[in-house]
């Protein structure tokens, strides 16, 4: 019965049914079942290209740090002193897990965006931004650099924030533990910094960057969100997750407001952020996510959630947090999981559009395991990897099923090279 919602997925033109499903939606969220699979990046790039070219989408926002991703934004828009090429910009992404954005698949995306923008008038140029909340010290540094050059009278608020965090030597774990043991924090200092940034009439250009004021203020927002996130994460409950996903959606809304009415945006993140949390046990645990929040805040009819998953293959991940990256096998999905069912039903790469058939959609509302691999993964633990109980057609509007996938191609793997691997198939 569920065959009726599927169609082959081999070339970019096979995305036509999804483009039709997207219609006039203003937000398209593109998920991935792992942070280290080449095909997820490839298909998101293909769909993003079509959304930009055919439907006028304005920017891509990703599960990445604001300061690092803003360097990409500067490069693709040709701002002064923005860097020579995508390889060098992405190779500078140093925060673990580096492979998420410092990979050849993203190099291809970024160079395509640069070429697109080179041909576009300035108001129509596409942006690239990070939604995440981790970059506490990096964002404080960016704010301080900006104020030093353009608003030195406001520098004292930045210095106060720096002095508060200084005893922790840029160690977020140390700060988090300290706030749990001692009833003190740097919350007021970063909030004061944000208020000062919002109050000042900041300069509008920085190295020819017309977004400099927005960038500086957003870094202040990140500092506030990061302080709160690290202060809550030591509790080990849902609060820190919710702080993070609320921050992502708040950042998205600021971007939409900055770009103006009727702006259309593409979001790249893991399925656990993209798929509606209410279709999983996350809801019972008090956890919300980006997919749920954008449906609630911005209206379900203007939002399309696209998940993805695979039956087997290989992935880049670490055995534990901060471990060296490795290429690891992904074993075949269990037969009772959604990936197992789709393997038996289709047996090939398939695009599923759940609105095609009401009966099939109802069947796909059954709760089954759905693969989820993060940046930490151990394929040798005797398990098949994490599977989240999921009502598939309630969690997403569409789904990309891939039969077998290969690992991402990171820039940081040794031996160091400035040339793409021989298997580099993506072009620009």
Walkthrough of the structure:
With 428 residues, the chain is an alpha/beta fold. The chain folds into two domains: 2-130 and 264-405, 3-Layer(aba) Sandwich (EreA/ChaN-like  fold); 136-244, no CATH class. The chain has 16 helices and eleven strands. The chain has helices at 16-22, 38-55, 66-76, 86-91, 104-118, 136-150, 155-165, 172-181, 187-199, 212-233, 238-259, 271-274, 290-298, 338-345, 358-363, 392-395, and strands spanning 6-8, 27-30, 59-62, 127-130, 265-268, 303-317, 326-330, 350-353, 367-371, 387-391, 398-405. The strands form two sheets. Strands 1, 2, 3, 4, 5, 6, 7, 8 and 11 form a nine-stranded mixed β-sheet that branches. A two-stranded antiparallel ribbon has the order 9-10. A hairpin with an 8-residue loop joins strand 6 and strand 7 (326-330). Helix 2 (38-55) runs parallel beside helix 5 (104-118), helix 6 packs antiparallel against helix 7 and helix 9 runs antiparallel to helix 10.
